[in-house]
Amino acid sequence: MANVIPLNVSLDRAGSISTLDSLDFARYSDDGNRETDERVAVLEFELRKAKETIQALRANLTQAAENEVPLQERKNYKSSPEIQEPIRPLEKRALNFLVNEFLLKNSYKLTSITFSDENHDQDFELWDDVGLNIPKPPDLLQLYRDFGNHHVAARDVVDVSVGVDDDELEAATPILGGVPVFETTPPSIEQCLIVQKLEDQISVLNSEKWSLMEQIRRLESEIDFLKNENFAVSTVYGVAPHPSLKQVPLTVSEDNGRYLDMKSSENDNKHGNTEETSLSLSAEVDSRTSKDDTLNSVPCKETEKLSSCASSTKATVHFDKPNRKLSPAFHQALLSFCRMSADSRLGSEVSRIADSEKSVMLMLGRCLPHIVPNVLLAKREELIPLILCTACLHPEPKERDQLLHILFNLIKRPDDEQRQMILTGCVAFARHVGPTRVEAELLPQCWEQINHKYPERRLLVAESCGALAPYLPKEIRSSLVLSMLQQMLMEDKADLVREAVIKSLGIIMGYIDDPDKYQQGFELLLSALGDPSERVVSATHQVFLPAYAAWTTELGNLQFHLIPTLLNKIEKLLREGEHGLDEHKLHMYLSALQSLIPSLFALVLQNAPFTSKAKLQGEVPQIEVTRFPRPVSPLQDVAIIIGSREQLAVLLQLYDYQLEHEGTTGWETLLWVVNQLLPQLIEIVGKINVASTACVHEFSRFFWRLCRTFGKIFTNTKVKPQFQEILRLSEENIDSTAGNGVLTKATVPIYATGVLTCYIQEEDRKLLVGFLEDVMTMLSLSHAPLDSLKASFVELGANPAYHELLLTVLWYGVVHTSALVRCTAARMFELALRGMSEALVDKRVAPALVTLSSDPEFSVRIATIPAFGTIMETVTQRELLERVKMQLASFLEDPQYQDQHSLHTEIIKTFGRVGPNAEPRFRDEFVIPHLHKLALVNNQQSVDSKRLDIATHLFEAYSALSCCFISEDLMVNHFLPGLKCLRTDMEHLSPEHEQDRDFQEGNLKGAGPPHVPKDEPVGKKTGLAEQRSFDWNSGKKGEFMTFGKRGSKSGGLQGCHEVKAGRKLEGPKLN
């Protein structure tokens, strides 16, 4: 038993031994006890710090509770003693505690319980619940007995801070002046009333004492400022000054004096003499004294007496000389034990608290550079007002520059809201300091950050240039600021920065008045319009261009330089773009012209003969909501350009009357628009390639905005006649040899969609319908190309509001007596069907196509095939699809169409176009089988040219359909046999296409070689148009992908069209 080891040792749990990393070597080291001791020491230190923090918080909480009533309210109570100050929370809790204590001591227990319940938020067991560090007063009985022992004699006194004159002081009554005194009133009652009044005032003054501490300290700092450094400490800490110091002059401002609690006798005020004022200063020697000692020994003057003349703002303060015989050296040695820190920067600032506005600015200028780095980045915008105010009022230029530098570098990457705050401050700064200081102090800060690495900083610079533009000297606006913005526009890579630059340039253009800068502004405008960023271009149209146009109008260059220059650039583009038009630049210039239309119309109104008559008298006419196109920005609103909506309404009324009754005589600006601008625009329109859909659309929108802005009367009397004169729509002018006349150019679609669609009344729609019917008739009868008519249908068909109108035009062609017109109408149905509702297709289009499909002329019937194909591609209604299928089947199976080569060609092209996008059932059951039949028939064609033509179109159709999901049976029975027939035609007629055909068939045979021997049975090896092989044995399907274009004379293999909902593919299994 003696060898048994007691198992009282605790074994630490070890970590996993799977890895050495899991071992905690420090845990099992010999230094474990030392680590524990260090940990205990750290915890003890943290506990001491926590206790100190709690003590400081308790003191702050008590002082906050004492000062809850605002200072201004306490002033009001002091000036009107009859108004009693509301009870404060701290006072209420103290009184509650004393009342409850009184109830308990005098056996009012039930009342005490009820009182406690009504004040459930207070703990009556603990006095500290009333307030931290608050001494407990005597009970209510002692307070009451002590109250009767106070007897204060009434005296004629006045507070020197209110500046009472002698006459007012003589008329002043005693404290009891408001209470009538009768001879029969016993003296004891009179004294009690006087005491009560005085006690009320004492209570108010005591409550105000704490709030005046800061003001008193300011006065003490004035004393310190006038004393030499050797005696500064004696003033702050309440020690008597050097005996040789008999008088210290003190300058008391009128603002500071009103906060001093000082009394002066009437006689002293009358004689204007200065009485020696005694100041007793209590020093706080030990910071750990009790709260009672702290309250009784505050570091401020308890009683101050100052004699002052009413008309003087300066006074001399005398301090009591101590009745001691200590040497000055002893005083200095004694004061060295005071805990002061004047050696450090912060200690120096504290020891010389500001005593004037100038010194406040100096102090802020010294302290702010040290404060800013220690403020959280997310909260630094709170310093902006302080920095700006200091920079605005600081007398030292170097310090102001440093503060503004801090402002622009305050936040590393300021967000939008922070930038707005900084800009607001900069504008306020500029308003106060004037243009000279803005130029000398703010602009250098912008220039320094023009190439900053963070785009947010550069964005701030760009926005600052615009915000400060109104407050800069005009020479600087047109030179330095303009150059800064130009540099940023050309060099900055951030879209947001360039966008801000454009907006600031617009603001600069609103203030610049140097005509020499006009050309520079125009170059900047062209650079902004050609910017690759859509944001920058949009800002140009919204801000820069309207502001530049306003300046151009003032200079008289709008109609003589800006607009003509843009037109000349468009004409140059069209001349140089015969082999390839730069549509981007055309859009750039034309959109700029479009944005100038409101400014041009405003100029027309302002230079009209009736301008002098445009006066706001009586009831102002209302402007229709749809009178003008919606502006892209407020700066393009004609009402804002003119000045007001009321003024514009009066001008519009006179404008319409002038056009309708008096004409344009003497109206130079409008005559320029009619005689020079419109003819040049119409000439440009005739040079546009009608096949360029984008150009047609841009010019259509331009003419639409132009006509809407200038009004209906102007459009009907000035614009339409010029177009009609050029077009000359009359059947007498039909020339079958004029294949390239004006009707084949872009003038037709632009006039139809840009001018005739401006207004939608019935007569306007009839005019548009009649124009399109005439164009269709004339183009058909003259055998001219239909590109202009097609462009009109495409542009109008994009808006569903014109679908009914287009069908009306087409029905006119359906019932026309000429087969050429009917054939044109049939071909136009294909374009009109795009985007049309199925209800219209069923009710209006299908009957018209069925009518045309039975036309006596085969050319008309053939022309309906593309439209039928489009229906199969776009419509989902089952009954309608069946009707179209039956019609196409009649074209293929009716014996009368067996020898119609053009019909077969049109059907094959239509199948290749709509097959990939058509309904899968229609494609599998109708399209692919009939392609197989057409390929078989083409093998028997005796005319080589027709055979080659059909084979070429079959090749294109099979290329398009090869990317679709095709079932095994369909692949074996129709698709590959059709390709074999096509190969036979290619080998016989076009050997150069054999390689393309072999490549296609090889892709369709995933496992076999590209070339299939002639004697091999069809269907033995099948595949799909895919770049990945298909594993038939495993049943795993590869990705279906289009094969590329091989490049042949006939066009080679085409890319697949978009395929509708996929169908599951099942491939044949090979043995």
Automatic annotation (TrEMBL):
Gene3D superfamilies: Leucine-rich Repeat Variant. Keywords: Coiled coil, Endosome, Golgi apparatus, Lipid transport, Repeat, Transport. This is LisH domain and HEAT repeat-containing protein KIAA1468. Its main location: Golgi. Residues 259-274, 285-294, 991-1000, 1057-1071 have a biased composition (Basic and acidic residues). The lineage of its organism: Eukaryota, Metazoa, Chordata, Craniata, Vertebrata. Residues 33-67, 195-229 form a coiled coil. HEAT repeats lie at residues 845-883. Residues 259-297, 991-1071 are annotated as: Disordered. One of its GO terms (cellular component) is trans-Golgi network. It is found in: Golgi apparatus, trans-Golgi network; Recycling endosome. The keyword Secreted does not apply. InterPro entries: ARM-like, ARM-type_fold, HEAT_type_2, LisH, RELCH. The keyword Metal-binding does not apply. GO terms for biological process: intracellular cholesterol transport.
